[in-house]
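Everyone, carefully examine this protein record:
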Amino acid sequence: QVPVVESGGGLVQAGGSLRLSCAPSGRDFVSYAMGWFRQAPGKERELVAAISRKDGTTYYGDSVKRRFTISRDKANNTAYLQMNDLKPEDTAVYYCAGEINPYTREYAYWGQGTQVTVSS
């Protein structure tokens, strides 16, 4: 069984919004932070946003600042990514993962991803 399951993707027009969810499957795992990544055709996998489990500190990639918001629900260990003002360049498969080394920024516990498609 995959460690997390992403949901909430879909097809939207430019300027629209989506909220992605990252829910744990089975028992929870230990990680320092939860991160949202994306990978578009012909591009490398990109860290979109991350949130620390310790203090809630957040990180955002330059391309999504002021548009995306990452959050975490401690009660159910679910991470969210609120995406506003979506652009065609946001089109990608979005993945959720857990950070297992805060110094090297190594991630594991990957989900299978959810497709986000933004039309112009």
Observations:
- The two ends are 36 Å apart (CA to CA).
- DSSP finds no helices and eleven strands in the chain.
